[in-house]
Specification:
Blueprint: E1 2-8, H1 14-25, E2 28-31, H2 32-41, H3 45-56, H4 62-74, E3 81-85, H5 91-102, E4 110-115, H6 118-132, H7 140-154, H8 157-162, E5 167-171, H9 176-187
Parallel strand pairs: 1-3, 1-4, 2-3, 4-5
Helix pairs in contact: 1-9, 2-3, 4-5, 6-7
This protein binds adenosine monophosphate (AMP).
Amino acid sequence: MINLVLFGSPGAGKGTQANRLEEKYNLIHISTGDIFRYNIKNKTDLGKKAKSYMIKGQLVPDAVTIKMLGSEVEKNKDAKGFIFDGFPRTTAQAKALDDLLAQKNAVVNAMLSLQVDDEILVKRLLERGKTSGRKDDANEEIIRKRIRIYYEQTDIVKSYYKKDDKYYRIDGVGEIEEITARLSEVVDKFI
Ligand code: AMP
């Protein structure tokens, strides 16, 4: 099994690159943000729990997010591996992911962290907001808040993976194909 954490601030390109890596390496792509949005759209209990946090640009509580991630992994028992996109966003989530994978005799092989300057992130997200229909992309104040929350609560997760030599910094600026090639250089080490 190969398990990758695709990391980076909002707008860093995690979703775009995860879709490409999913196809290239035949892995299951789990985007916690996409799952929350799907549940909000379908007005499920999970959607109701997540909605108030998401529209404000805040993190959904760990207990809710970890439980949801666990059931998503369980839905894919035969997976060759996973690409986790937007998860973990806290150290508690990173620990929970290790515990979950340990039950499958598996580990996170690498954290691939896409680095993009903040002002480029804001521009990208405002641009995405014109077509994505995402309320949290439509408002510059919410976008800046999400980036701030990333630095306050999520950036620290890097150190969790650094201590095990699993952290890889990837330049997230350039052509989409070019960035996929940079990510693939690392992924290929584990194939
Ligand atoms: P994303 O699509 O990854 O940008 O996530 C959109 C929003 O979903 C975030 O701003 C959070 O409100 C929520 N969310 C997604 N993943 C997580 C997570 N791992 N932990 C907490 N909240 C999350």
